[in-house]
Structure formats: structure tokens, C-alpha cells
Amino acid sequence: MNIEVIFKWVLTMTIGGSIAVLIFATLSKIFKENLSARVKYYIWMVGLFCFTIPWNVLAKLGMKDIKILNQSTILDDSSYITSKLSNNNVLNLQITGNIARGRALIALPYKNISYFNPEKLVEFIGYVWLVGAIVFFVWFLIRYIWFKLVLIRNSRECSNEYCSRMIERYCNLRKISRKIKVLESDIVQTPMLIGIITPILVIPIKDIAREDLRLIMRHEFVHFKRKDVLIKWLSKLINALHWFNPLVYFAVLKLNRECEYSCDEEVIRKLKKDGKRRYAEVLYNTLLVSIGSGAGAAFGLVGKKESIVERFRFIMSFESRKMSKRAKVFVVMLVLTTIFLNAFVQIWAKDILSLDSSEIEAIKSTIEGFYETQYKSYLQMEYIDITPYLDMSKIQNQNKVIALKKLVFRRKYIDEKKYCYVEKRHFPYELHYKNIELDGNKAKVVIDLEIKLKEAYPPFISYGENIFELEKQDGTWKITKHIYDKWALMFYEFSTDQKLPEPDYEQIKKQIDREFRIE
């Protein structure tokens, strides 16, 4: 799979995800007083993960790759294309502008031979995106690892027996088999949870009143229970993939905000006004000291002083209330509708970005150009280069070139000598595209080649089923394998695994003379 395909997938996901973020931002604003912080947290979680679901890829897998059926290409003196699509597939096909010269056709694939190739630009932008994503995530990773190493190096086993008993009691109540490692450090001002596989709870060395410590520890326990550390890591990974989209930064900011607010909500749900004030004051004082610290920089857990004041106000004004069943159903329906719209927008964006249709057009152009260039060479009785359509590392394709050279030379010599009538008419033939399977930079095409009976067609026009295997090389689709009637293959190419000798034109002349009994 090449970089431009991956980048286009990311673009479709970023367009769909942006729509979801805008909708959720509007809903959060409208229903600000009706939705709890926990519901908002889950909504923003869904919104952020809308950037990771490649609906167009899933749809393709559901259809077992792209399958384009019942398409026909009729090639004659005035070549044109007709399309009949089944299964509601939509594909915009470019009418070929073949020009008749005498009875020959010029059919060069405009997608494959050009001075400017848009795919090269997309490939360049794709590499810029990839470098940006790697730099973004590696920078975050370095900062986190550095902070974790410094923190652990300046930490020791927890000597606070009350804290240890509280954690042990919590693990027993929640039936948590893995233990939470507890450390204390003088470089943190408030307890914090780090680590995904091995969770570590770090508490400050300074003396904290038992009631204050209990409230803050409950906050950290909520993070542990919901696996918020993992969510934060995934959000950073999504942010790295879509580093160029400002709406992703907005969604990550909202997710982190609602994550902390929802934890506060769980802690103060059953507290009275005095308890809320105490929790708010402890939180305010510890977070205020933490602004700009390594902890805050590592995961973005702390923000500006204004945001801490806003959080203080949220805690003091919080009133526990349950959502009605009707409200829950309404929220679920809105979320599902947004996900559906996200999928629709992605599939729409896929067509706008021409993820598949432009590739299929280029593949069809290669096959049709391959046939018509041979036919032109056949009629003009001069070899015309067909290598732009072929992967010349394959023996079969080398033999195709040699066979065409021999064929046109024989026709020209026989015509010059007037040994017999040489057909110079271009008979129409029809390509029925039975199946096109596209898998990244490889494709497989099955066509049914239809001809008019009793007409003299060149030997490279083999009626019936023809199977082409193609590969995209340097932005150009090349034929790597051509499977067709074995008797026609043996008559024309002779072999697909043993290379033919280069044509000896003097020997060919003698052979033709012998055939017509001219000594």
C-alpha cells in the first residue's frame, strides 16, 4: 500500500471526524445545562474516535474489494465508452479521445503519460504528513518518557500508611487483581496516575490532611477505573495522525477538560456544600502550584489559571441529577445519527478525492491503450512502443514486444512483395469489464473481449476471457501478467516463462519467401 492511498484515507477520516466534532460542539453548547460531565466526556470520546474509523475501507472490505461489473468499452474507428453499473455503483468514466488516422487509432493513456502527474504531488504531501505525524508523536513520547524517568528517579516507596491502606481497600472492593504501585515524590504537588500496563500512583511527600488526601485519591481512582490514561494516549495518537487539523486539537482539549470534570463530578456527587468547598479548595491550591510543571507538560492535565477557576466554579455549582430515559434515548440517537453522518461524509469525500475512480480510469486506460497501440502498429505496419503499458521485468511482456515486432515486419514485407492480400481494416471489438479488484498498488481485471465473427483480427486480439494483473509503479499502472486462451498465447507469444530471441529480420524474410515458395 503506497503513501498517497494512506494519506487519502486520513483525509477522508479527518473530513468525517471534523463534521462529528462540529456537531458535538454545537450539541454541548445547546444542552450545556442538561448534560452531565460524564455524558459530555463520552460524547467527546466518540467524536474523537470518529477520526479513526475508515468507513470507506470497511465498506470496501464488506464488498470484498472494489467490484465493478457490466462495464463495456467498444473500440472501433470512432472509439467510445458505454457504462452500465450494477449494485448502485457510480463511476464517472472519461470518454477516450481516440483520433482516427487512416484506419488506425491512437490510444495513449492520458493518465499515464503526462508532464504533470497529480499523484506525485499527493505523494509529496503524503510524505510531509507522515513526517509531521512521526515528529508530533515522537516529541510527545520523548517528553513523557523524560518526565517519567525523572519522576521515578526522584521517587521512593510510599511511607504513608493511610494512603497504602486506602489503595488496598479500594482494590479489594473493586476486585482488582493487579496492584497499583504507590510512590511518593517531592517534584509533584498533587497525586497523579501514570502508566498503562503497570499503573503507578505518585503522591507528594508533603503532608496532606487525611480528608484532603482521601478526596484527591478518589479522583485518581476514577481515572484508574475508567482507564483514562489509555484514552489520553489514544487521543495523542489520533492528534498525531491529524496534526494538520485544528479541530482535532479542539476535540482533544474538550476531551481532557470533560475527563477532569467528570472525575470531579463522581467525587462530589454525594458531598454536601462544605465537602464540595473543601474539595474545590484542595484541588485549586494543588493545581495552581502545578501550572507549568513537568506533570502538566507531559499529559496536558493542567491549564491556565482561568480554567482552574472555571473548574472551581463548576464544583461549587454542581447539583446531582439523573437524566430521564427519554433524554438518554435522545442523546444516544443523536450520537448514532452523527456516526452515520460521519460515515456518509467519509464515503462522499472518498469520491471527491477520487480514491478509487481515478485509479480505475487509469487502469482501464492502460488496458485499452495497450490493445489500441498494438492495433495501430499492426495497421501501420511499423512497430510502435508498447512498453509504457508493460512491466518489462516480466518475461511475458518482453515476449509481447518481440512478437509484435515480428508480426508488423511480416505484414509489411508480405505487403511490399504483394504475396497476398494484407488486411488493413480496423474491426471493432468490445471490452466487457466483468470484474475490477483494486488492492492498494495492485489490481486484477477480468474482461470479456467480444469480436465480430468471420472478421480477420490480429492474433493479439484474443476473444473470450482475458485476465490482467497490474501494478502501480512510479504513479503509472503497468501490466504484469496477461492470462488468456492458451492456444492463442502459444501461437502468438509462444511462452510466458522463456524469453524469445530478438527478431532476425533477414531470417524472417527468407522464411516468408519459403512459405510462398519463392527461392
Summarize the structure.
By secondary structure, the chain is of the alpha+beta class. The protein is 55% helix and 13% strand. The chain has a domain at 66-116 and 356-515: Nuclear Transport Factor 2, Chain: A (Roll).
Radius of gyration: 35 Å
Helix-strand sequence: HHHEEEEHEHEEEHHHHHHHHHEEEEHH
Number of strands: 12
Main β-sheet, spatial strand arrangement: 2-1-9-10-11-12
CATH class of the domain at 66-116 and 356-515: Alpha Beta
Distance between the termini: 59 Å
Question: How confident is the prediction overall: mean pLDDT?
Answer: 77
Q: Structural class of the helix and strand makeup?
A: alpha+beta
Oligomer: single chain
CATH architecture of the domain at 66-116 and 356-515: Roll
Q: Count the DSSP helices.
A: 16
Helical amount: 40-55%
Strand content: 5-15%
**Net shape:** elongated
Major beta-sheet overview = 6 strands, antiparallel
Residue stretches low in confidence (pLDDT < 50, at least 5 long) are: 63-72, 77-117, 292-302
The CATH topology of the domain at 66-116 and 356-515 comes to: Nuclear Transport Factor 2, Chain: A
